[in-house]
Amino acid sequence: MRSIIPDYLTEALGDVESDISGELAGYIPELAAADPERLGAVFAMVDGAVYGAGDIDTEFTIQSISKPFTYALALSDRGFDPVLAKVGVEPSGEAFNQISLESDTGRPLNPMINAGAITVHSLAGSEQLNPTERVERVVQGLSAFAGRALTVDEAVCASELEHAHRNLAIAHMLRSHDILTEDPRVAVDGYIRQCAVLVTARDLAMMAATLANRGVNPRTGEQVVREPVVRQVLSVMATCGMYDAAGDWATQVGIPAKSGVAGGLIGALPGQIGIATFSPRLDPHGHSVRGVTLFERFSADMGLHVMEVPAAARAAVRSNHVVGKGPYAIRVFQLQGGIRFAGAERAVRETMDAAPAQARVALDLTMVSSIDDVSRRMLLEVVRRLTLDGHEVYLIDPDSIIPDPDPGDGGRVTVIGDLEEALSPGRTVT
Amino acid sequence: MRSIIPDYLTEALGDVESDISGELAGYIPELAAADPERLGAVFAMVDGAVYGAGDIDTEFTIQSISKPFTYALALSDRGFDPVLAKVGVEPSGEAFNQISLESDTGRPLNPMINAGAITVHSLAGSEQLNPTERVERVVQGLSAFAGRALTVDEAVCASELEHAHRNLAIAHMLRSHDILTEDPRVAVDGYIRQCAVLVTARDLAMMAATLANRGVNPRTGEQVVREPVVRQVLSVMATCGMYDAAGDWATQVGIPAKSGVAGGLIGALPGQIGIATFSPRLDPHGHSVRGVTLFERFSADMGLHVMEVPAAARAAVRSNHVVGKGPYAIRVFQLQGGIRFAGAERAVRETMDAAPAQARVALDLTMVSSIDDVSRRMLLEVVRRLTLDGHEVYLIDPDSIIPDPDPGDGGRVTVIGDLEEALSPGRTVT
Amino acid sequence: MRSIIPDYLTEALGDVESDISGELAGYIPELAAADPERLGAVFAMVDGAVYGAGDIDTEFTIQSISKPFTYALALSDRGFDPVLAKVGVEPSGEAFNQISLESDTGRPLNPMINAGAITVHSLAGSEQLNPTERVERVVQGLSAFAGRALTVDEAVCASELEHAHRNLAIAHMLRSHDILTEDPRVAVDGYIRQCAVLVTARDLAMMAATLANRGVNPRTGEQVVREPVVRQVLSVMATCGMYDAAGDWATQVGIPAKSGVAGGLIGALPGQIGIATFSPRLDPHGHSVRGVTLFERFSADMGLHVMEVPAAARAAVRSNHVVGKGPYAIRVFQLQGGIRFAGAERAVRETMDAAPAQARVALDLTMVSSIDDVSRRMLLEVVRRLTLDGHEVYLIDPDSIIPDPDPGDGGRVTVIGDLEEALSPGRTVT
Amino acid sequence: MRSIIPDYLTEALGDVESDISGELAGYIPELAAADPERLGAVFAMVDGAVYGAGDIDTEFTIQSISKPFTYALALSDRGFDPVLAKVGVEPSGEAFNQISLESDTGRPLNPMINAGAITVHSLAGSEQLNPTERVERVVQGLSAFAGRALTVDEAVCASELEHAHRNLAIAHMLRSHDILTEDPRVAVDGYIRQCAVLVTARDLAMMAATLANRGVNPRTGEQVVREPVVRQVLSVMATCGMYDAAGDWATQVGIPAKSGVAGGLIGALPGQIGIATFSPRLDPHGHSVRGVTLFERFSADMGLHVMEVPAAARAAVRSNHVVGKGPYAIRVFQLQGGIRFAGAERAVRETMDAAPAQARVALDLTMVSSIDDVSRRMLLEVVRRLTLDGHEVYLIDPDSIIPDPDPGDGGRVTVIGDLEEALSPGRTVT
């Protein structure tokens, strides 16, 4: 009976099935021989639920979709500075196969074009790895994103190696600028193996969901990369992922995305969902024709656009009332929903605007569904200031949404699970 | 006592004050004569609260910051298609004063470069307006965003007109491609008046907050433009607003933004906040030096980055339990927090996965802080399917977060304010 | 009976007549209404002889063919430095209507593209001229090249002014870089009048012949511009005259050339000939289709290519013999042909290699058909050195091809009309 | 005593000696270790005379100066069409190491940039040659131009191979477009050997003189390539040889030229001279600093500029008179100097304008120093027409400047060595 979303996906696929426009990638026989009618779509939720329709378990090569994930691995393995020194983050406004190096330094403009991706491949894993180990690191890393062990399509790999002149040209150019410091052929070989990793639409959706889930694979629970890396990768996907169609995509779809010439297309919406589609025919930009249509539909139907302003929320401060009387009276501020900076600001404002007349003040977090770091710090600062002003402060936090609260210099707070506890003796935490 | 945020802003200004790098815009005497030490920053919350520090009420000319707002007005006044036919949405990867027209059509690449902005100015208001009326429409529209009546700096305007050769060049080029269909000088005159509108940092923050608040000015409550327009404008700001520094900004700051040569800089984070800074010295990209530093800090300190994945939230389904016994038993699904697609999906999954054994089912929305359109429709579909499966369905919604619920063909739902009502006779809504 | 060349031209026109490919320039009605079948070709020799076939007296507007001539006028009126400071000499490799300014200075790349030509127009005549006088200077100057008073086609002029947005764009851009220092509209108006001057193919051939004839109109004998100006203009025509087809033209035709959108096409081969063709249909580069074919043929048939190496010439030293005996013996070096550096070098070598045994030496210039400046100086140096070595030197120069010879410090020479004079007492010139 | 030109060269070198600006090419140790003070200049006349001063016998690597000569070999070995199909002739307006391929076909813009030169190398010799044989063909061809057996600097060659990443990048890019059809590394290896050929300034001047002398080495007399090839090569040198300084060079020097990073610089003025200079410090364009200065001086001092209009020549028709009386009267047209199209036209005009009254007509070529093909044909046509008009025609041509004259259908001519012969019985040639 849980078929609302599968039904939706099936209907969406049905609507695009008749579109046979576009062309298969034809530069190697293996891609040219793909079944052009393949069609699949998968939603992977950040808690691990997966919905799919169509060809969601057919394997195909990951191709350029490997780029953001290998970028994540390089940032993770080497740190930001060494990677940024070699590869920029500016959109090129050009097609994927343009060389697009900075004219003075030879630094590739971004990691989504081939020049950037080949360089990024060379930065995956530790510096000590030999080329074979580095490819292993990449395949293992992509597997961690996907949550299963992925393998390389040796036939595609061999064929790509035979048609790698453009990538070899790029790599030699990078080598001439000392952006690459190894044999260009070795770097291209590794990059081609990376692109020949076999995935299914299901895998790709899970990989995207791992990005949407702050770097943690929703199924395996593995923290594949840290949050700052995820933020960097999603930002670069948003501005550079769709090459010269970046602006159209940003306005009409608004989901950080990446496509591959084998027909895959992924999108990751932070905190919500990873999406993948598979349909091999490509538009002139090199993106899956039906995939683009599906993403446009998903974005419109589901409100999945990073610039979608959420519907007017309830106030973060649900209520502001006094419980009890006389010296036992407590001013209670009941917060609710997901608290980010704007919500925390509101809480600060309401609690501090009119200095509470009561000696005792409680911040009730029972109905708070999430809270971010800055908001946690702001609420603790409120606690501290209230303490300094002579108040006795309680945090009603039955689920420890703020674990081990430390209001800092001069602040004191008593954590309780229920308001009732404040009306009777409770424990105190500094 | 509400000084946490003001204190923060004051500290932030203090930290950048010593940075006197950069140059005043010098192409007209009025800008070259600005006081380079001016420095201010304002936070405007989507509920109308405003925090500021420094020179927040000093007037200066809005310059290029008028571009996204006039783009919003044109989209609103003419509709999307006529505007998109004349001005693209692709980043140019070039400086603000590059002509950057599509080589075949002469269409400016995006509305943030001057060629696009001059064209957009010509599309503000209805087609019937004469040039004077069109400027009035623009000034009135900018005023609506700001929430107060803005005026034009006639001295700057006159001076800009004397130094308008580059813009006249652009306008004549646009005219030669029939992108502009009027006298180029008239279009440039109007555009220059638009850029010479006087604003304060406070105004700019409120204008940004209006974008962050789905087009509704938080103070006046006026719906200046509709939501799809806001989404389009924010998307274009995100990809094109910072010109050739777009990628650096997208990764390091991650707030859709726009700068002006008089020293203003704004950012709008959907659903949360409008930010403005003012400091006249500019970096080589034409952005306020201290403004950029302040935004980098705000983003880092406050978690204000569109790709910031919110901290792991509590489950959208807070609890799933049975109240009452025997035939009166009700299966209650208690939802919580802000419900968007991912949350609605979870709710659908839990309610429908295991078909409830109980004849009566209640969806408790009491603790839901917000819900978007797709989620509302998904929950109503759950209601419909439960009805079709023979259940009697209740919606516990004391604050009408889903007003007038209509589960559609075959569905029925009883809205109640409290679970108690379900245990006694209640009213029924189809 | 002098019909060899007219017959040739008639035959050549007949061969291209059936080619109706290409399109009329259509940006103004006057050009679009031209008779596409018009066809004419003219050869103007540097001594004033003119051969023509077809429509050689039909008037049409000169358009871009005015560019090299106005460049000549500006160089002549202002001097090289002020003109080179404003307009470069580098080929742009782009079409005629590209802006092509140097990115740092805004200086147009060369005087053959519109940006350069508008700037050059502004540099014609003295700085004191008002715009009307400047146009008069240009029309008068073009007339001097043509050898008859030319007039402006007012209808074309008016129509061009209505469609001048691209040129106005260029002029405003030039003004913004201070390359133009006057009202851009005034400069464009003047430039448009310059382009609307009416000419015939006969006029154009004579204008080209004036360039080929070192700046002297072969018919009127007027020195319109000086030789260094001619050299500069021909060099720039050779590299920039045919825009993005420059290389094809340089290899296949090899005649410095310039075309106009009204169908004119000129070529000037230094020292030999001015050629003009007229046929209004244009190829995608904007050049007359049949005109290009005719020039290719003329070049191939007539050996008119600047890189054509002349057939192996006779030795510059025709004979080296002794006349007379004993103390009256004279060593005679008989020179012949056109003497340029290579010929003079040969003469120097033969005269000085083996120091003549005879006390008397004669250089016989009777059969020399031309001599350039460096060669004249080299021969006089030979005279001087022979004198210093104790020889008595005679110059046999009946037609004063070296007038008033001055061999310089220590040199002496006796000019005689005939060797006989040396055998009898002659006059001596220091 | 023949020291006029050596003295001049010595003085010119002395004047530039103090200029130590510029930098040695530093991309390989061998070039970086060159003696920067080396300085030499050589003039090689088309008749084999050579003048030099300074370091004229020091060997250095030919580098890019090999490009025009290998282009000549490829055109010669394969024909024009196969070479033009692979490499264009348009100036790129870019530096030598830009890739500059046509965007659609991948065809290098011209043979003077590396992409073109690598492709040209692959087209030298017959298609059947293996890579080693092809390099041998190139070295042998360069040796034929120089007139002595040249060798390869193996140390430079090995070092260049280690630093060949940019050229390998270019070659792989060419391979990806099927412009190159062999292993890119093999093509680059061959090209590097070509560039590492050792030459002296004397060799280079002789190579240039071979171009100036219609493809015939002035010393060995070998016809290395045919005239159309020479014309093509000189044309391409004129427009593309000096890369992004092409326009400056064309106007200020006006000699088709080519430079190499080892410090060589050559120029060839058709029919006159080959020039070479050697000085290793390079300007930012990659041209020898002192070499450029020397060429500017040579051009100015010697009138060596292709657009230099020769000084006004004597009339091609020196005299037009009647010798003898009554039936024996002969109308004699005495021609003189170098006869090209313009001179022949004049001769045609004078001989045919006024139909000679005399039955006998003589064209006296005794004082003609040279005549080109078209002029020869025109004079013979005059002969034919005079014959048809009933005249008896004589050609006074003691040195057979028109060997075996054939006036064609209906024409008859009697060749005599002296006018006296016409006054007595002579031999007749049809």
TrEMBL record, chains A, B, C, D:
Record-annotated STAS domain positions: 330-396
GO biological process: glutamate biosynthetic process; L-glutamine catabolic process
Keywords per UniProt: Acetylation, Hydrolase
PROSITE patterns registered for this protein in UniProt: STAS
Catalytic activity: L-glutamine + H2O = L-glutamate + NH4(+)
UniProt-annotated binding residues for substrate: S64, N114, E160, N167, Y191, Y243, V261
InterPro entries referenced in this protein's UniProt entry, alphabetically: Beta-lactam/transpept-like, Glutaminase, STAS_dom, STAS_dom_sf
Record-level Gene Ontology MF annotations: glutaminase activity
Matches recorded under PANTHER family: GLUTAMINASE
Assembly notes: Homotetramer.
Name of the molecule in the record: Glutaminase
